[in-house]
Design brief:
The complex is a heterotrimer of chains A (about 325), B (about 400) and C (about 300). By secondary structure, chain A is mainly α. Chain A is about 75% helix and about 0% strand. Chain A has two domains: about 1-55; about 85-315, MetI-like fold (Orthogonal Bundle), CATH 1.10.3720. In chain A, α5 crosses α8 (about 180-205) and α10 (about 225-250) packs antiparallel against α13. The longest helix of chain A is centred in the N-terminal third of the chain and has 46 residues, at about 10-55. Chain B has about 400 residues and is an alpha+beta fold. Chain B is elongated. Classes of the chains: A mainly alpha (about 325), B alpha+beta (about 400), C mainly alpha (about 300).
Chain lengths: ~325, ~400, ~300
């Protein structure tokens, strides 16, 4: 790339000088451009990541917080949590929640995307707008709405369910039992996650070349066979991305539980993120909390790798 | 095998755009018919209506003896080769070829047998385990053909299958497709915008323009006796030279004033074209094929004087651009847009007009730009057209080939 | 034709799957299903707005009123008059505007580097950008707190701004890079032949051309910053430094639960985001999964 540089030097030496200035200029320019963004990301993302790992090997309580310095204790934090039955309960609970939430999100999201293909244009516009509206609702707002809907006294959920003769839900406290509590949380999370899946899958469906479906129709495939044989395989990359993203997001679920339970969730509502958070900020055991957080990150690592590989494969990097 | 018949078929989009207007066409059993025309002429729409990929607005299409208007594509027992091949990208070549058979529940052993045979015929045996992305354009095209052949359908439909290939490959594949069709004797409807493909491959060719069938005939007859200006300018490469001339009553005979030359049309020429008499006192359009443009040495009839503008050497012959004084064809809406010659130049005083003729000359002749040359005008080689409508002034007794006997 | 066993014959009776009347009925059926799905999905949002406009007794009644028949603005007045509402609005606005402005500048520069230069470490940086988006905030919040307390940035808007900036940058850099790649190189080259420096070409030619990309990324940054809860909750501890989201989340713990004003507050909080989201939704979905389907 030729830089039209200006110079007052006489021609011969100007040429040589311009050449070397050009070389340096060109060589440094990208780094200079990247530097501010890289600095911010480095300080606030990369360094804390390292700090997280190093913290997990330290004892860091209130005392250490004031002194701004931790005390190295090797792998004690890890042995402690691995021997703690609560840790395993929390881990199991988080895994179960993730599996259920991701499955429901993917199935329902894809079903609605297929529905979008079948409906008339007007309904499609209405549905898409509705989905975007749901997607736009901030999580904090959504949690409050659902909290209101399942209110034990005046909530609309109890009223509607009783009216539909699905049981007696008058004054039913949804959060009395963690199972129904998580039911509500799962519904809330899936509700908020569906729009993204639906819109993405729908976009993918629209990208399937019309010609392929026509060829399949001429070859004798009924609509369902064409879907299974032609459309689904083409959608595989999208599903991989969506599933890995959903796993990453749902595994770290925090806000919904925290806010729904008035920032004081009982321990049988703990997920990994909440567990790590309470250890650190409620019990001021930052070292221990870090160790739990590290385990959480490791668990999500596999999903992250899969996501990254699929994105890179999709040809974005050349 | 089955015939394909269009009866008063029309296709209208929205409320007003008619892509196909009242098409009547019959493709006999085992016949290879090419639908050709410029983009937007309706040929692909017509093909897709046969396939069932477009709704038929009016009229009837029959495959064999069945009216197929309401049948889904998969029930019509036809196979289609798409322009972009439409190969299933995630399936191997074998699976692509076998797909249609699988959908019809053909037993696995039978599938394997047929796919392997087709692969052998098309030279694809080594590629059966590969995916389309790993194949070259020509190989993909053959897989697309194979997929159609392996199903042994009643008819083949082909939508510009060669457009995505480079020129040399196209020539090769043209011959292969024609050979396959002749061997298998499957009724084939083939769509292309390339008139060379149309001429070389079809038993009969249907020229379409703006949704209307202009002429349906054998390639040779399309070339020798085009039904109107559009067909005349569309078929043949390099295209027919077109210009205007005036017809006058000259005593007993008919006079033709062409540029500076005036010639009396010989009796047999007039006798062949009885309608020509009705054009006395009017202008007509005249066409001369490039190979009929000859140098006048040894010719004792009417001559045209011209000046050589450009000589293009093609090796086997020379294409010579010659400027003559003549009235250019002003009705450019009647001819194929792609065949338009460079715009005519106004003479010095605005009254003289020139036309650039393209002539195909023997490669041994010494011709140079700037030279003056005299051209022989042989009225027997001229084509006459009505200037108002573009329709050819017909020769009497021209049998139109409605049916063609397919050899073998 | 050939010596091969013929296929099983296709049924002669025409399968009239395309009779127009049947198709219309099917479409109607799907539309009904679509309508049900729409109602179910949107109901919570509707319920929030409906509740916000209902007078108190209609909100706190055992039989819910489906449509607010006597709409009132009382809940809104009540919500707005809550302590620190306006402080929260101010804080949220400050934070979001600064984040948007800074992220645009930094992301544009970085995207330029990634899109228009070849240099050692480019691929590594790209992987870093993509990967870093995956690090869970809930894990990072712990070391971030430690880090921020060391440099005395706890309970300060500037600290929050820096953190928000970080979380927004990867996506914005990636998106702007995509937009920049779409601008043909010839335009820059023409500009340079015409007399600008390379950087001049960037600013005068590329910047205006990626206008839509800048709009999209600034809207994205706005939405992220506006909606964020966890960081604001942990770091902005005094009530007058809170953002709107924290204000909303703390609504219930103050005086028992006043559902009417809460829903009104929630509605108010959502408005800016909903507007912007409707403007940019397609781009966001596309950016995260771009190019995934191969046809």
């Amino acid at each position: 790339m030729v830089t039209v540089a200006e110079s007052e030097y006489p021609l011969a030496s100007r040429r040589r000088r311009r050449f070397s200035r050009q070389r340096i200029g060109r060589g440094l320019a990208p780094y200079a451009l990247l530097a501010p963004a890289a600095a911010v990301i480095g300080v606030i993302l990369a360094y804390p990541l390292y700090l997280l790992v190093s913290l997990s090997f330290q004892k860091y309580g209130l005392f250490e917080l004031i002194r701004h310095k931790g005390r190295g204790i090797g792998v004690d934090n890890y042995t402690r949590i691995l021997h703690d039955s609560q840790f395993w309960q929390v881990l199991g609970r988080t895994v179960l929640f993730t599996v259920v939430a991701v499955s429901l999100t993917m199935v329902l999201g894809t079903a609605i995307a297929l529905l979008l293909v079948q409906v008339s244009r007007f309904m499609r516009l209405a549905l898409t707008t509705g989905l975007v509206l749901v997607w736009a609702t901030p999580v904090v707002v959504a949690v409050n709405i659902w909290h209101w809907m399942v209110d034990f006294e005046f909530g609309v959920a109890n009223y509607a369910l009783t009216k539909l003769h699905l049981g007696d839900f008058i004054r039913h406290d949804w959060f009395e039992s963690p199972w129904s509590g998580f039911g509500v949380i799962t519904a809330l999370v899936v509700w908020g996650a569906i729009p993204f899946v639906t819109i993405t899958v729908y976009a993918g469906l629209a990208q399937v070349p019309q010609e392929l479906l026509e060829a399949a129709a001429i070859d004798g495939a009924r609509p369902w066979s064409a879907f299974r044989e032609v459309t689904l395989p083409l959608l595989k990359p999208i599903f991989v991305i969506l599933i890995s993203l959903s796993i990453i997001w749902d595994f770290q679920v925090f806000q919904q539980i925290w806010i729904m339970l008035d920032q004081r969730p009982a321990s049988d509502y703990y997920t990994m993120a909440i567990y790590a958070f309470s250890q650190s900020f409620r019990l001021s055991e930052y070292g221990l909390g870090s160790a739990i957080a590290v385990v959480m990150v490791l668990f999500m690592f596999l999903a992250t790798i899969v996501y990254l590989r699929q994105m890179l494969k999709a040809g974005e990097v050349h | 095998m089955a015939e394909i018949q269009f009866t008063h078929v029309s296709k209208t989009y929205g409320n007003d755009f008619k892509a196909v207007k009242d098409l009547n066409l019959k493709i006999g059993e085992g016949e290879f018919v090419v639908l050709v025309g410029p983009s937007g002429c309706g040929k692909t729409t017509a093909l897709r209506m046969v396939a069932g990929l477009e709704e038929i607005t009016d009229g009837e299409i029959r495959i064999g003896d069945r009216v197929v208007n309401d049948l889904a594509p998969r029930d019509r027992d036809i196979a289609m080769v798409f322009q972009n091949y439409a190969l299933y990208p995630h399936k191997t070549v074998f699976e692509n070829l076998a797909f249609g058979l699988r959908m019809r529940k053909v037993p696995k052993a039978e599938q394997r047998k047929r796919v392997e045979e087709i692969a052998r015929i098309l030279g694809l045996t080594d590629m059966l385990t590969r995916r389309p992305a790993q194949l070259s354009g020509g190989q993909r095209q053959r897989v697309a053909m194979g997929r159609a052949i392996v199903r042994e359908p009643k008819a083949f439909l082909m939508d510009e299958p060669l457009s995505n290939l480079d020129a040399k490959l196209r020539v090769q594949m043209r011959a292969e497709i024609a050979r396959i069709q002749q061997t298998l004797k499957v009724t084939t409807l083939y769509v292309t915008h390339d008139q060379v493909e149309a001429m070389t491959m079809g038993h009969r060719v249907a020229v379409m323009r703006d949704g209307v069938l202009q002429q349906l005939d054998t390639p040779q007859r399309l070339y020798d006796a085009p039904a109107d200006l559009f067909v005349a300018s569309f078929v043949g490469s390099p295209p027919m030279n077109l210009m205007e001339a005036s017809v006058e009553q000259g005593g007993e005979g008919i006079l033709l004033r062409l540029g500076e030359a005036t010639l009396e049309l010989p009796g047999d020429v007039v006798a062949e074209r009885p309608a020509l008499r009705g054009f006395a006192g009017r202008r007509v359009a005249i066409g001369i094929r490039p190979e009929d443009v000859r140098e006048a040495s040894g010719w004792d009839g009417a001559r045209l004087r011209g000046r050589i503008l450009l000589v293009e050497s093609l090796g086997a012959e020379q294409l010579v651009h010659i400027e003559i004084t003549a009235h250019p064809l002003e009705r450019t809406d009647l001819v194929d847009a792609a065949a338009q010659p460079p715009s005519p130049s106004l003479g010095v005083d605005g009254l003289e007009r020139t036309v650039t003729l393209l002539g195909r000359f023997d490669r041994h002749l010494l011709l140079a730009p700037g030279e003056a040359v005299e051209l022989a005008i042989d009225p027997r080689l001229l084509h006459f057209f009505d200037l108002e409508t573009g329709v050819a002034i017909p020769k009497a007794e021209v049998p139109v080939a409605a049916e063609v006997e397919v050899a073998g | 034709m050939s010596a091969v066993t013929p296929i099983a014959p296709t049924p002669v009776a025409p399968v009239a799957t395309r009779a127009p009347r049947r198709r219309r009925v099917r479409k109607l059926g799907w539309n009904l299903v679509g309508l049900v799905v729409l109602i179910v999905m949107v109901f919570p949002v509707y319920w929030m707005v409906a509740t916000a406009f209902k007078p108190g007794q209609q909100v706190l009644s055992y039989t819910p009123q489906w449509v607010p028949l006597n709409p009132t603005l009382d809940n809104f007045t009540e919500a707005i008059n809550r302590p620190h509402f306006w402080d929260s609005v101010k804080n949220s606005l400050i934070i979001t505007t600064v984040v948007v402005a800074l992220s645009l500048v930094l992301a544009f520069l970085a995207a330029l580097a990634l899109a228009k230069f070849r240099f050692y470490g480019r691929k590594a940086f790209i992987v870093l950008i993509l990967g870093v988006q995956m690090v869970p905030l809930t894990a990072l919040i712990i070391p971030l707190y430690i880090l921020m307390s060391r440099v005395d940035q706890v309970n300060k808007l500037s600290g929050v701004i820096a953190m928000y900036l970080t979380f927004v940058l990867p996506f914005t850099v990636w998106t702007l890079r995509g937009f920049l790649l779409g601008v043909p190189k010839e335009l820059e080259e023409a500009a340079m032949v015409d007399g600008t420096t390379r950087f001049g070409a960037f600013v005068r030619i590329l910047l205006p051309l990626v206008g839509p990309g800048l709009v999209a990324t600034s809207i994205f940054a706005f939405i992220q910053a506006w909606n964020e809860f966890i960081i604001a909750y942990v770091f902005l501890q005094s009530p007058e430094k809170q953002t709107l989201m924290v204000w909303l989340a703390s609504f219930t713990s103050l005086r028992g639960t006043e559902w009417g004003p809460l829903m009104a507050g929630a509605t108010l909080t959502s408005i800016p985001v909903v507007i912007f989201f409707l403007l940019v939704q397609r781009r966001i979905a596309f950016g995260l999964t771009a190019g995934a389907v191969r046809g």
